[in-house]
Amino acid sequence: MRISFKEWTKSGAPWVWLNAGAVAISMIMVVGLLILIAVRGLGHFWPADLVQATYSENGQQMKLVGELVNSEDVPADQLRDSGVDVPEGAEFMQRNLIKVGNRDVGGSDFIWVLDDFISQSSKPEMLFAAERREWGNFYGYLRSVKQDGELVASYDGYEKTAEYEVLWQDFQSRIERALVLHEQIKDIEKGDIGSINYELERIRLKERALQLKEITDQARYQELDARRAELNADYEVLQKDLTDLYTAFNRDSITAEVADGRIVEIEISKIVRAFLPNDMGLGAKIAHYAEKIVEFMTDDPREANTEGGIFPAIFGTVMMVLLMSVMVTPFGVVAAVYLREYAKQGFVTRLIRIAVNNLAGVPSIVYGVFGLGFFVYFLGGHIDDALFPEAKPAPTFGTPGLLWASLTLALLTVPVVIVATEEGLSRIPRAVREGSLALGATKAETLWKVVLPMASPAMMTGVILAIARAAGEVAPLMLVGVVKLAPSLPLDMNYPFLHLDQKFMHLGFHIYDVGFQSPNVEAARPLVYATALLLVAVIAMLNLSAIAIRNHLREKYKALEM
User: Fold this and answer.
1) Is the pLDDT reported for residue 375 higher than 80?
2) Are residues 336 and 243 in the same domain?
3) What are phi and psi of 50, to 5 degrees?
4) What is the mean pLDDT of the chain?
């Protein structure tokens, strides 16, 4: 039976289809965005082939060695206006972005070239790529290996032979040796010597505290001096070991030929890894790709955050969110319980609820300014005056740090937790409360043992929403604790182990810094996508953990709700 358009509209079917279409479009946009971020971010770690070619433009010729990064079509008129000799009749020309590396040799590791002017293109198996701790990637031909300045082995050809294989394997073994020594140096500098320096600073502060209290007991000063002498003796031993390690670390070097034929010398201690991308099979490239992904998630950054990993930023983000959740949950739950269970429902209570709802719409930067002024300067300054006078004028808690960042975000998200918890409390039937009271329980016992457990899924919903908002915030964190590069993690083996006064790194700020503050834009662009994808993954994991807890609580108390 056919129905009229008016009846069809009244049935509500158009609105169902409209909502379904809106949801479908939203899902397509979200999935498409994630795919775009994943392709552009994760593709950065794939070992691309190296191309050797000759480039001729306006009568000038040069040799190129590098990897293709991007291609685009450029209007021919635009190229003519810039002085390029464009063939007649051409409307568009393809322009390629080539990563040529060797920034210490050529001054720039990315160049744009026109595809029509490239000739004699090839992919020699002997071309190698080296990732370095400084100056970015190096591309060229391996020519010799040196030890203490003396030639160990060399090769001058352009074809792979058994002699070259021996040279390459010797190069790889020396890189492995240097990496082991680098880890030993890092353990001594950041571990042993770092602990000694931390303990020496604590001794200095204890001595300063005795002086401020005008304590003249020489025995206590002598005890501190004895401990200082012991630590200094340990430091001298470690310093000697460190000197020996650095001597061994800087022992080896290589010479390599770059695209224009020049021979340059590179210390192996500055090389993280070297590989032959044109000679790698699919399995070797997949293994290399997996190694780079693991490095990205577990290593420290280098090269102004454009190389290496982002583990400190992952750790800082997760630690801040966990601390924020621990802080915001009790405050939000207590406020919601008071408003729903104890406060007299009148004009003042309605005014408080309106204020809470309005707080959720305050711009986050306002919370950052408040956190800087109240938490850092006022509260932190008074804590320093009361508890850490020996450290002044250097601030301890009177400076941005992990604690104040977590508190600021807790303040930013507490309205969400209050509203969600209140909604959960309002859904608990009045008969449940009356039944508990009728059995002889007090109001406090009813609240603690019946009402709050049944409302716990709603509390977790509030925490999930709080995590979703707080984890991606950047503006307030720039004022209350986040930095471009933190030398150490806020959690280590030095007392008190968790350093709430310490500054930290954050994935959101890392995206801003790499994307807008990096001196090497082309090198930083893929890392922006990769870090954004990782931030989404971290937020999703935190939310999924909270959702799992909420679902468990919901199943546990489902019988009571029925």
Assistant:
1) yes
2) no
3) -95, 135
4) 88
Q: Please report, as a single letter, which amino acid is at residue 31.
A: V
Residue in the structure block whose two tokens are 């210390």 = 267
Decide if 99 contacts 113 (C-beta within 8 A): no
Same domain for 375 and 336, yes or no, is yes
CA–CA–CA angle 18, 19, 21 (5° rounding) = 65
User: In angstroms, rounded to a whole number, what is the distance separating the alpha carbons of residues 287 and 285?
Assistant: 5
Residue 215 Ramachandran class (φ > 0 left, ψ -120 to 50 alpha, else beta): beta
Contact 276, 256 (CB under 8 A): no
Q: Report d(CA 562, CA 474) in Å as an integer.
A: 43
Of 231, 233, 234, 211, nearest to 221 by C-alpha is: 211
Q: Which helix (H) or strand (E) holds 187?
A: none
- Spatial separation of the C-alpha atoms in residues 52 and 64, rounded to whole Å: 6
| End-to-end Cα, the chain, rounded Å | 42
Q: Are residues 190 and 56 in the same domain?
A: no
Structural domain boundaries enclosing 119: 51-123
Report pLDDT digits (tens) over 248-306: 999 999 999 998 889 999 999 999 999 999 999 999 999 999 999 999 999 888 877 88
| Alpha-helix runs per DSSP H in 93-192 | 103-106, 162-186
pLDDT at 4 over 80: no
pTM of this structure: 0.87
Report yes or no on 377 lying in a domain. yes
Q: Which class for 281: exposed (0-12), middle (13-18), buried (19 or more C-beta within 10 A)?
A: exposed
92 and 181 co-located in one domain: no
Peptide bond into 393 cis (omega under 30): yes
Residue with the two structure tokens 């390629």: 96
Token pair 């070992």 is found at: 47
Quick check: 213 pLDDT over 90? Answer: no
Length of the chain: 562
Tell me the longest C-alpha to C-alpha distance in the chain: 104
User: pLDDT category, 562, cuts 50, 70, 90?
Assistant: very low
